[in-house]
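Reminder to self: keep the SMILES exactly as supplied, no canonicalising. Ligand is flavin-adenine dinucleotide.
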Amino acid sequence: MKAAAFDYLRPASLGEALALLATHKDDCKILAGGQSLVPAMNFRLARPAILIDINDLDELDHLRADAGQLKIGALTRHAAFHRPVVEGPLGTLLAKVVRHIAHYPIRQRGTFAGSLSHADPASEWCLVATTLRAEMVAKSARGERVIAASDFFHGTFTTALEPDEILAEIRLPIMTPDWRVGFYEFSRRAGDFALGMAVAAAKVEDGTIREARLGVGGVGDRAIRLGALEDQLVGTPASSDVIDSIDRIAREARGMIEPSGDIHASPEYRRDLIAASVKRALTEALA
Ligand SMILES: Cc1cc2nc3c(=O)[nH]c(=O)nc-3n(C[C@H](O)[C@H](O)[C@H](O)COP(=O)(O)OP(=O)(O)OC[C@H]3O[C@@H](n4cnc5c(N)ncnc54)[C@H](O)[C@@H]3O)c2cc1C
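C-alpha cells returned for the bound complex:
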C-alpha cells in the first residue's frame, strides 16, 4: 500500500516548526528519520494530514558533552553512536547497543529522539534512557519542560509528549571511569527487534558496588527499571563472590516481569530470556 494523501511542510527554524505544531496539533506528525513513521503511513496505520519535516533545523543537530551530561539533539542519527561519542563507559555502552538497532541503512536515517518519541517497547534506546535515568527536553510554543525518563514512557507507542511538543534533546548522565557496563540482547535474526534484553551498570569504588543501574526491555509495554534489584547490588563486593549475587538477581528478575506471549515467544520463554539477559549483562559488567 501507499500512504494516504498528506501535506508536507519543511520549516527552516525551530520557532517556525513550533508555530506549525501549535497550529496543527493532532492533525500533524513530526517527520525525523522516517524509519518508523513512513512504514506506518504506508500500511495506513498512521494517516497524518500534515507532515512537519524537522531535518533542516540546525538547532536540533548536536551531540555534545556538557556539565556531566551527554546532550543528544533531536537530529542525532543512530549511526552517530557507531564509535564512542564520549570517553569512558557511557560511550562504550552506546557503541555496543547501537549495533543491535535495525540495519546499517536504517541507522543512517533513524534518530535517537525518534526512537524515544515512537516508544516501541522493544527499542534499545528506550531501554537505555529508562535504565540510565535520562532527561527529555520537550519544546513547544508554550515553552520548555524537562521530563524524567520514569515519567516519559506511558506505554506502547505512547509518551508524555503533547501534540504540540517536539522532543528537542535527550540528556544522559556521563559515567565516570569507575562505572562498569554490560548489555545483552536476544533477537531471532540480526537487525530484528529484541525478544528480550538487559542493560546493567555499576559504580565500583574500593572493590564494592556503590551505585547500580539495571533495566530490561522487550517484555512489556515499556522498558522496565528493576530498582529493587539495583538496591540489592549496592554494597556487594565486586569480586568473584558477585557471581552468587548475579545468579540470585537474575532469578528474581524472572519473577518481576509479566510478559505476554505472541507468535515469537511464550511468556515462560520470555521470562527465561530475561533471566539469561540480566545474568549476561551483569556478568559483562562485573565478573
Ligand atoms: C526494518 C526495521 C527494523 C528496525 N529495527 C529496530 C530495532 O531493532 N530497534 C529499534 O529501536 N528500532 C528499530 N527500527 C526503528 C528505527 O530505529 C527508527 O529509526 C526509530 O524507531 C524512529 O526514528 P526516526 O527518526 O526514524 O523517527 P520517525 O519514523 O520519523 O518518527 C517516528 C515517530 O516519532 C515522532 N517523532 C520523531 N522525532 C520526534 C521528535 N524529535 N519529537 C517528537 N516526535 C518525534 C514522529 O512523529 C513519529 O510519530 C527498525 C525500523 C525498521 C524499518
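Points to follow up:
The chain has a mean pLDDT of 96.
The two ends are 50 Å apart (CA to CA).
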